[in-house]
Amino acid sequence: MSKATAVAYERLLESLLVAEAVPGWRSNRLKRLLRQPKRYLVDPALIAAALRADVAGVMRDGSLLGRVLETFVAAQLRPELAVSASRPRLHHLRTAQGRHEVDLLVELADGGLIGIEIKANASPAPGDARHLAWLRDELGERFARGVVLHTGPRKYRLGERIDAVPICALWG
């Protein structure tokens, strides 16, 4: 497929509200950040339908489960951010060689940042927050909070300004 055709398809999917691009975050403080957007289907069920995967199939494939879960969280955050009075913006962060990646980054009106990692497990460990810890150390006070969203039932601390929080807290 040619690049022009791919771009046309991407624009069509975005116009039909089937897909959305989350831009890469930019900063002169961090070097070698990728600027390409991260693309999400607006409904995680579309992934399973396109792959002809049922619930059992998604649950068996850890990689697919992680992608469906990340798409689900992005789909839940999108309307919350849209109605927020401060109009925060959603980004993602990835360094050029993929050494550091943060699934979602919420940029607040005051310039503060909330980093979000999404994990398909019930009890993330501090190692699951290593990219958030890196971002916190690089940005200092601009890093407002880091959150590792997970499938478990409880909230707990993973590090300074970094917490593990159940995904269900998005509605609580």
Characterization of this structure:
Helix 2 (44-51) packs antiparallel against helix 4 (62-83). The chain contains five helices and eight strands. The protein has a single domain (19-171), classed as Trna Endonuclease, Chain: A, domain 1, CATH 3.40.1350. The strands form two sheets. It has a six-stranded mixed β-sheet, sandwiched between helices. A two-stranded antiparallel ribbon has the order 1-2. Helix content is 34%, strand content 26%. By secondary structure, it is an alpha/beta fold. The protein has helices spanning 3-15, 44-51, 55-60, 62-83, 130-139, and strands at residues 19-22, 38-41, 89-94, 101-107, 113-118, 143-150, 156-159, 162-166. A hairpin with a 5-residue loop joins strand 4 (101-107) and strand 5.
Topology:
Blueprint lengths: L2 H13 L3 E4 L15 E4 L2 H8 L3 H6 L1 H22 L5 E6 L6 E7 L5 E6 L11 H10 L3 E8 L5 E4 L2 E5 L6
Parallel strand pairs: 5-6, 6-8
Antiparallel strand pairs: 1-2, 3-4, 4-5, 7-8
Helix pairs in contact: 2-4
What key phrases describe this protein's structure?
single chain, 172 residues, alpha/beta, Trna Endonuclease, Chain: A, domain 1, six-stranded mixed beta sheet, two-stranded antiparallel sheet, 5 helices, globular
